[in-house]
Amino acid sequence: MIPAAGAADPHWWNDAEPIWITAEKNNKKSALYWWAGCEVEIKGAHPTICERQYYDGPPIKEVTTDFQERIDDFIEMFKYSKRFEDDRLSLVLMYYSSVDFNGHYNGPKSSDVKKALQDVDEILYKMQQKIREAHLQYDVNIMVVSDHGMTDTRANVVRHIDLKKYAPSIKHQMDYGGFSAIIPQPGMLNKLVQEISADKIEGLRIYKKEDLPEKYHLKGSSKTAPLILIAKQGYYIDR
């Protein structure tokens, strides 16, 4: 979840409403640590506390230590705010990067990912201990979520999907690898779909925006490109 260039532009956020903005609009205070987008003004609102994401790949030990320190911080805030109801936090979001980082760089089945998962287990155990010690076990709910999954691949067996022959019909290609979002040249969408479909490219699924499966929750967004290409496992869409 490393922030992309331009990710702090409210343009990319204002069509939706993140949960921390919903909380703030309802007079519920939120604190976000290393959470992409917490520094962005969305619909005129910010979280009460934002420690923006700075992560660029430090060792697992450093990330784990920093994360544990932040847990200590927000436990203290919960305890402190018991005495000052107006400052009480209702929502705390924390992003732990080691599992994602090691999955991308070393593979989801690597020993590095297993170590990162063990660290998560230890962090959650210590977090629950600290919550009980602070007598907050009936006031705090813990939820663990993930933004995506991963699949294992090998560089020597990945098959590449080359889109160069369609370049005259493509205005912009955004993203590559497992999927690609395509903005065709004006008036070229149907022609481009027909050309790619006619070639029956192995390992490639092609969708017009309006034909995307409901499970992706994308076709109703103004930010979704007119054409989406998705590679099957073991295939890679080239830039």
TrEMBL record:
<dbReference type="GO" id="GO:0005886">
    <property type="term" value="C:plasma membrane"/>
</dbReference>
<keyword id="KW-0378">Hydrolase</keyword>
<comment type="function">
    <text>Choline-specific glycerophosphodiesterase that hydrolyzes glycerophosphocholine (GPC) and lysophosphatidylcholine (LPC) and contributes to supplying choline to the cells. Has a preference for LPC with short (12:0 and 14:0) or polyunsaturated (18:2 and 20:4) fatty acids. In vitro, hydrolyzes only choline-containing lysophospholipids, such as sphingosylphosphorylcholine (SPC), platelet-activating factor (PAF) and lysoPAF, but not other lysophospholipids.</text>
</comment>
<dbReference type="GO" id="GO:0098552">
    <property type="term" value="C:side of membrane"/>
</dbReference>
<dbReference type="InterPro" id="IPR017850">
    <property type="entry name" value="Alkaline_phosphatase_core_sf"/>
</dbReference>
<dbReference type="GO" id="GO:0047390">
    <property type="term" value="F:glycerophosphocholine cholinephosphodiesterase activity"/>
</dbReference>
<keyword id="KW-0597">Phosphoprotein</keyword>
<keyword id="KW-0732">Signal</keyword>
<protein>
    <recommendedName>
        <fullName>glycerophosphocholine cholinephosphodiesterase</fullName>
        <ecNumber>3.1.4.38</ecNumber>
    </recommendedName>
</protein>
<keyword id="KW-0472">Membrane</keyword>
<dbReference type="GO" id="GO:0016042">
    <property type="term" value="P:lipid catabolic process"/>
</dbReference>
<keyword id="KW-0443">Lipid metabolism</keyword>
<keyword id="KW-0442">Lipid degradation</keyword>
<keyword id="KW-1015">Disulfide bond</keyword>
<dbReference type="GO" id="GO:0046872">
    <property type="term" value="F:metal ion binding"/>
</dbReference>
<keyword id="KW-0449">Lipoprotein</keyword>
<dbReference type="Pfam" id="PF01663">
    <property type="entry name" value="Phosphodiest"/>
</dbReference>
<keyword id="KW-0862">Zinc</keyword>
<keyword id="KW-0479">Metal-binding</keyword>
<dbReference type="InterPro" id="IPR002591">
    <property type="entry name" value="Phosphodiest/P_Trfase"/>
</dbReference>
<keyword id="KW-0336">GPI-anchor</keyword>
<keyword id="KW-1003">Cell membrane</keyword>
<keyword id="KW-0325">Glycoprotein</keyword>
<comment type="similarity">
    <text>Belongs to the nucleotide pyrophosphatase/phosphodiesterase family.</text>
</comment>
